[in-house]
């Protein structure tokens, strides 16, 4: 069909012959302004008459042009896609140049040997955490106002399964100060299989050199664009920041009490507190410690007694916590998407509607209250 149109254009420009149908006749007359004849050949000039590109009239001519423009005559090397296409467009014309050049390079035996095969990595399968202290997230929060002890940062470890929090004040966030504190917590609570951190690559490399290579702990850098995985961690960090900002100058003194309150408060997404899920026993709050004091006459049970029953209870509790975690993550992912949609809609909302909407909303409440409230 392409060659038929070019032959009709050639006949019209050469001796004013026109097609029989009215539609084809109008089309040829309209396109003829972009073409001209020279030495008995049809050339494409364009609407502004700035080109002089020979029109290819057959498959044999097209093959000859592609071969001529694809191979460098000086050294015999083959041009790439862009180089071949530019050489063709510079001197020749037909309507499917881009497609023909791509197909020519794809079928060229020499070029096929040079093109590397694109291999996609296999889809990563998420690792399911099934027990406490198997994987933790590590954050260095700060800087905050400097305390009397010189502390400005908080090293925060969050158990990904139970959301149990461990926090320790730091004077700086350099690796030399973070590593001994982290090592101490690992020796206190036990070693983990994976540590996730949002610190930079250089921080991770230095920390690996000092600690992780010796302890055989794999580290994975978390991504802040995964709200489904980090929404609960962000709430914990917000609660710590709020307490620290309200107690500037001496926040490190009561940091342990604040963390204990976080761990003993039942989370919205769980049926139990992080403390109970982590230690498999209910916590004792300060107001309850002396409520039922022990007499001088008491007996300590043997820890190994009734082990089977405790194992069954712990297994059931872990399965229940795992189901609660998955449900909470799905809910958080959905709410995060809804929040983003509401934010996008708020941008387009008129100012009067924004004020009306804000006035009808209740004041935000903290998910976890700090001590003393």
UniProtKB/TrEMBL annotation:
Ranges where the record places region Disordered: 322-373
Molecular function as annotated in GO: nucleic acid binding
Biological processes per GO annotation: DNA integration
InterPro entries: Gypsy_RT_Integrase-like, Integrase_cat-core, Integrase_H2C2, RNaseH-like_sf, RNaseH_sf
Database matches in Pfam families: Integrase_H2C2 (PF17921)
Compositionally skewed regions (Polar residues) per UniProt: 330-344
Protein name listed in UniProt: Integrase catalytic domain-containing protein
């Amino acid at each position: 069909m392409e060659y038929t149109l070019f032959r009709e254009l050639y006949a019209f420009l050469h001796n004013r012959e026109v097609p029989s149908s009215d539609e084809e006749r109008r089309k040829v007359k309209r396109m003829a302004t972009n073409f001209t004849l020279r030495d008995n050949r049809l050339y494409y000039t364009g609407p502004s008459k700035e080109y002089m590109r020979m029109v290819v009239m057959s498959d044999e001519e097209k093959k000859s042009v592609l071969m001529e423009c694809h191979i460098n005559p000086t050294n015999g090397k083959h041009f790439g896609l862009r180089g071949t296409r530019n050489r063709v467009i510079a001197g020749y014309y037909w309507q499917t140049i881009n497609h023909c050049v791509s197909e020519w390079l794809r079928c060229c035996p020499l070029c096929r040997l040079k093109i590397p095969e694109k291999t996609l990595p296999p889809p990563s399968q998420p690792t399911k955490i099934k027990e406490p202290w198997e994987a933790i997230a590590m954050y260095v929060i700060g800087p905050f106002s400097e305390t009397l002890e010189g502390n400005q940062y908080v090293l925060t470890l969050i158990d990904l399964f139970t959301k149990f929090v461990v926090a320790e004040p730091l004077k700086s966030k350099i690796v030399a100060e973070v590593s001994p504190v982290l090592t101490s917590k690992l020796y206190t609570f036990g070693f983990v299989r994976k540590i996730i951190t949002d610190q930079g690559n250089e921080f991770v490399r230095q920390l690996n050199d000092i600690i992780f290579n010796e302890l055989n702990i794999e580290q994975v850098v978390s991504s802040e664009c995964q709200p489904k995985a980090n929404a609960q961690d962000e709430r914990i960090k917000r609660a710590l920041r709020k307490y620290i900002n309200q107690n500037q100058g001496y926040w490190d003194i009561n940091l342990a009490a604040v963390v204990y309150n976080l761990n003993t408060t039942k989370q919205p997404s769980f049926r139990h507190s992080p403390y109970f899920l982590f230690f498999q026993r209910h916590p004792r709050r300060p107001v309850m410690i002396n409520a039922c004091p022990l007499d001088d006459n008491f007996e300590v049970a043997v820890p190994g007694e009734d082990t089977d029953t405790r194992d069954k209870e712990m297994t059931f509790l872990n399965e229940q916590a795992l189901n609660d975690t998955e449900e909470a993550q799905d809910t958080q992912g959905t709410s995060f998407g809804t929040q983003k949609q509401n934010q996008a809609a708020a941008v387009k909302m008129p100012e009067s509607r924004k004020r009306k909407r804000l006035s009808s909303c209740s004041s935000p409440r903290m998910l976890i209250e700090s001590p003393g409230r």
